[in-house]
Amino acid sequence: MPSSPNKSWLLLLGFILFYIIYLLVGALVFSSIERPVEERMRRDILDMRRDFLNQTCINASALDAFLLQVLSANGYGVSVLRNSSVGSNWDLASAMFFANTLVTTVGYGHSTPLSDSGKAFSILYALLGVPFTMLVLTASVQRLMHPLVYAPRGLFQRSGLDPRPASTVHFALLLVVTVVCFFVAPAFVFSAIEGSWTFLDAIYFCFMSLCTVGLGDFVPGEQPSQKYRPLYKVVVMVYLFLGLMMMYLLLRAFHKMADLHGLTSFLELPHCDEDDQQPILEEGPSPPPHRAASKQPLEPGSQPSYNTISKG
Amino acid sequence: MGLIQIFNLARVPSILMLGAVYGAYVLVGGVIFWKLEGDLGREDISAILARKQQVLQTYKCLNSDGIDAVIEVIQDASKAGLSIKGNNTSDGFWQFTSSAVFAATVVTTIGYGNMSPKTPAGQIFCVFFALIGIPLNMVVLNRVGKYMLAIERNICDFLQGKTRHPRCTRFFVHLISYLTGVVLFFVVPMVMFQGHEGWSFAQAIYYCFITLSTIGFGDYVADSNPDKMYPEWYSFLMASWIFFGLAWLALVINHSIDILERLNSFLNGWWRRRNGKEETNAPDDVENPDTQVEQMEQVVEPVKQLPTEK
C-alpha cells in the first residue's frame, strides 16, 4: 500500500537537505585541515623560486616558459627528470590498465588520452564498456550471493538463530573478511612494493579505488624502478575487479539485512529482491511472467528493475 | 542445499563466457589505446627533453642537478594546485567553495584528483566521509531520478490520452525526452565551457562525458583554472549540472544495460530453439516490448524489487 504522498515528499526533502549539509560539513573540515599545509608549501616554493633566480643567470620569463612546458607535460604523465625512465605510459600493459580504469569508471587520470582520436575513442569505448562492466559485475555478484550469503545465513538459521540476528552476524563476518582480505592485506603488499607509500597511503588508495572515486594521487606501478611492471599492473587490475565485486556484494548483503530489520520500509527505500526468482543470464525455465507493468503506478517495489552498480 | 546448488554450478558456463568477453574487451581497448597514444607520448618526451637541453645550454650557470631539483619541487607544488607563474598568487585549492566541490566529487565518485588531501588526517577523514557519503549520494540521486522519470511519464500519459496512437506517442515522448536530456546536459554545458574555459568543442564535450559518467580523469576540470575569472553563478551552475546530469546519465546507462540483457535473453532463446529444446516461457521482457519500455522506466532503482510489493 503506497505511503501518503506527504511523507514521501518530506522524506525526499529531508534526504536532499541532509545531503547538502553533509557536503558543506565536509567542505569545512577539508578546508580547515588542508589549507594550512597548502599555505606553508606555497611560501616554501615562492622562497625557493626567488633563491633560484638570484643564484643563477636565468631570467624569470625564460624560467616560467620552461616550467609551463614541464608542468603541462607532467599533467599528462610525462616526466622530464633525469633519472626517470618509467618507459611509456602507453605500453600494452599500461594501456590495458587505462582501459580498465575507464570501464570501471575509476578514472585515475595519471595518464589521459592526448590525441583527439584518443579522446573520441575513449568516449565510445566507455559508452559501451561501462554498462557492460556493470552487467558483468552484477551477474557475478548474483552468482556469488548463493555461496557467500544465502548458504551461510541458512546455516546460521539451522543452528538455531532467528533470521534477524543471523543476518546481522553474517553481515558482520562478511564485513570483517572483506576488510581484511581486500583492504588490510593488499595495503600491506602495496606499501611493501611501492617504496614511497606508507601503510595509510596504501589503505587510502585501496578505499578510493574500490569505491571508484579514483582520485589518482596514488597509482600503483608508476615508480621509475618498478620491476615486472606489466605483470604488476595486470595483477592490480584483477584485484580492482574482484574488490569491486566484493564491495557490491557487501552492499547487497547490507541491503537485505536492512530489509529484514524494516529499515528500508521505514525510509521508503526500494527493497532488495529475492534472487532465486529472477536471475540475470537465466538459462533454465524462467519464473511466471510479471503482470503488465505499464498499468502499475510508479511506486517502490511495484515493478521489476535492474541491478546496477548504481551511480544514481 | 546440495553442493551444486550452492555454487550454482549449472549456470557457471554463461558467467565464464561473459568474463571472457569482458577480458577480451579490455584487452582490445588496451591495444587500441596503445596504438593511438603510444607514439604521441614518445614524441612529447623527446620534445621536452630537447627543450631541457636547450635551456641548459643557453644558461651556462645552470647544471642538471639544480634544474632537476627545481623541477621536482614545481611538480609537487603543481599537484597541490599552486601556480607560481610570474607573480601570480593564486588562491590555491582549499578555499571553502573549492573544498565543497572536492567533497562533491568524492561523494559522487567522480574523483578528479586535481586536488586531493595530503595530510594523514585529511586522508583518514576522506575515507570516512566517502564511506557515508557515497551511499547517501546513491540514495538521493536515485530518488531524484525517479521523480524525473515520473514527470516524463505523466507527460506521456497525458499526451496518450489525447492521441489515438499510444505506441507512437510513447516512442516520440521517449525520443524527445532523450534528446532534451542530451541538449541540456551535453550541448549547453559544452557551449558554456567552451566560452568560459577556453577549451575547444571537442575538449568540452570530452570533459562533459568523462564527468557525467563519473570516470573523472581530471585532465580537464572546470572552474579551476587559476588564470581565469569566473562569474559568481558559475560554480553553482556547475554543481547543479553535475547533480542532475548524473541522475539522467544513470538512466541512459541503465537503458543500455537493459538492452544488453534483452539481447542476451534473445540470444539464449534463439540458442535453445536452435537446439530443439522445448519452448519455455520466455521472460516477459522479450515477449512484451511495451511493458519492457515501462519496465525500463523503473530502472533507476539500484536493486531489483519484490514483484509482489503491496
Give the tags.
heterodimer; A: 312 residues; mainly alpha; Helix Hairpins; 8 helices; 64% helix; disordered C terminus; B: 310 residues; 10 helices; 0% strand; extended
Helix content of chain A: 55-70%
Distance between the termini of chain B: 30 Å
What's the order of the H and E elements of chain A?
HHHHHHHH
Helicity of chain B, as a percent range? over 70%
Structural classification of chain A: mainly alpha
| C-alpha geometry of chain B | extended
Greatest chain-chain contact: A-B, 154 and 166 residues
CATH C-level category of chain A: Mainly Alpha
Q: What characteristic shape of chain A results from the CA principal axes?
A: globular
Count of helix runs of chain B = 10
Based on DSSP secondary structure assignment, what is the total number of beta strands of chain B?
0
Uncertain spans of chain B: 279-310
Low-pLDDT sequence parts of chain A: 275-279, 282-312
The average pLDDT score of chain A comes to 75
Overall pLDDT of chain B: 74
| Oligomer type | heterodimer
Description of the molecule:
The complex is a heterodimer of chains A (312) and B (310). Chain A has 312 residues and is an all-alpha fold. Chain A has one domain (4-269): Helix Hairpins (Orthogonal Bundle), CATH 1.10.287.70. Chain A contains eight helices and no strands. The longest helix of chain A has 51 residues, at 5-55. The radius of gyration of chain A is 25 Å and the shape is globular. Residues 275-279 and 282-312 of chain A have low confidence and may be disordered. In chain B, helix 5 packs across helix 8 (234-274). The model of chain B is unreliable at 279-310 (pLDDT under 50). The radius of gyration of chain B is 26 Å and the shape is extended. The longest helix of chain B is centred in the N-terminal third of the chain and has 47 residues, at 12-58.
